[in-house]
Design brief:
By secondary structure, this protein is mostly helical. α1 packs antiparallel against α2.
Length: about 80
């Protein structure tokens, strides 16, 4: 199976395609419901990644305001 990068734009496109299929009775309500649950989980993951990126940015901004010249790599901080 080929890996594909998922973005919120691709996720929205998939949702609209599935909504059209549901309207045209090409997929069942149960299948649409199962896909909606997966989309909900993906949305939670997107939100987590966004929150993590915002925290990293805020941390760097705070350290810069404190006058610290040498800032540790954020990846190192995340791994501790």
């Amino acid at each position: 199976m080929e890996k594909q990068k998922t973005t919120s734009k691709l996720l929205m496109k998939f949702i609209f395609i599935q909504m059209n299929k549901l309207d045209e009775n090409k997929i069942s309500i149960e299948k649409a419901r199962a896909q909606a649950n997966l989309i909900k989980q993906a949305n939670i993951l997107f939100k987590y990644e966004l929150d993590k990126a915002q925290l990293s940015t805020k941390t760097l901004m705070f350290l810069n305001r404190q006058g610290i010249d040498e800032i540790m790599d954020i990846k190192t901080l995340e791994n501790e």
